[in-house]
Amino acid sequence: MSVLELNGVSKVYGDGPAEVRALHEVSLTVDEGELVAVMGPSGSGKSTLLTIAGTLEAPSAGEVVIAGAAVTGMSRNDRARLRRRSIGYVFQNFNLLAGLTAAENVALPLELDGVPAKVAREAGVQALEELGLRERSGSFPDELSGGERQRVAIARAVVGDRRLLLADEPSGALDSANGEAVMRLIRTACRRGVAGVVVTHDAQLASWADRVVFLRDGRVVDQTAPAAGPESLIAPGR
Ligand code: ADP
Description:
This protein has helices spanning 46-53, 76-86, 102-112, 117-130, 146-158, 176-191, 203-206, 230-234; strands spanning 2-13, 20-31, 35-39, 61-66, 69-70, 87-90, 164-168, 195-199, 211-216, 219-224. The chain is of the alpha/beta class. The chain has one domain (2-96, 161-233): 3-Layer(aba) Sandwich (Rossmann fold). It has a six-stranded mixed beta sheet with strand order 6-7-8-3-9-10, sandwiched between helices. The two termini are 17 Å apart. The structure holds adenosine-5'-diphosphate.
């Protein structure tokens, strides 16, 4: 079943001579359990695509469907609920709150959604455990390494019953070993049924995806199933 559908999505910023066509009739479907990497030169529309898929901005034309529900026409409240409950975001700079422990950071989206603090905290610790960070639950962000902070950010993005994971250069600030680790973790989250879209510049990291979508000047110019990536070596026949 598809979790994310973009149908003929266009995005125009500004108007008149200042008009920028950031996306031009982009169509993309991402199924449950599928990981899609988005690549393309700077300015090709990658961030815009992610922002629209995350319902943080509306397209100028076309349709966005998330978990079967058309986003266009939803009330602001319904869109906010969809973002709170169904979509996880991983930002390049982690965006962890310094005054909260790892477990509290991960639990925050659930707490904001009204889940009782104790239940949210347990879910937070469990998400950290799945990413191999249980023993760091009580640590504050500045006590964690860059790779650990990114794992906390991924745990926060998949905590609860999230369906769609969106990541913008999730390995941007990490060395290559940690970058690979992050992609492996996102891959693992997707295998549990989450649909993932990851923007990356790095072809090696993109090879962890099931599919790579190439953007140029706001258009999808190519879609490929990558050559057997590192994942195939450890999990043949995925
Ligand atoms: P990428 O992520 O591939 O670098 P972006 O999606 O950030 O590309 O940008 C695509 C195009 O849209 C660029 O020309 C960029 O300058 C323009 N753009 C992006 N966001 C805005 C905005 N808020 N206002 C005006 N132009 C924008």
